[in-house]
User: What shape does this take?
Amino acid sequence: METNLCVAGFGGQGVMSLGKFLASATCDATDKNVTFFPSYGAEQRGGTANCFVVISDGYIGAPLGDVMDDLIVMNGPSLTKFLPTLKQGGTLFINSSIVDETKVDRDDVKLVKAPVTELALEMGNAKVLNVIMLGVYVGYTEVIDPAIVWSTIEHKLASKPKLLPLNKQAFEKGLELGRAQR
Assistant: This one.
């Protein structure tokens, strides 16, 4: 089995970190093959950012394909740009705090909504919105064991232990949201 995921948003939303956490967790703790392919816009914070993660039981022929199984969009322009790449029957995850679901003009995909910007602000730090969305994705798809993903996040943030409790709370909230929409 192979899963092609595109994560897209603007700089500062943690798009790359989300993809790296998922790719690292899968690579380090499973026997699956993984590719991570980042793409940055001309600007940094506020510019476009997207990445592709491919997880496969077999060899991966190319780091990214033209057709995505899953798509995570964190802002409106990313929805417009990447929705056509989502395959029929694929799953679209949207940051419903800022992405207008009425702009999803397809009824052949599954829609998973999560107000991650709003939730992150309620938790007191907008920077955890990506960890919430990662939890939503893992909770919904079960592509990898959540404990493995959390272990990777914990390892990556080990130099900043003060961030761990909030990130743990964010990841757990995302898992809960994702599982509830299965």
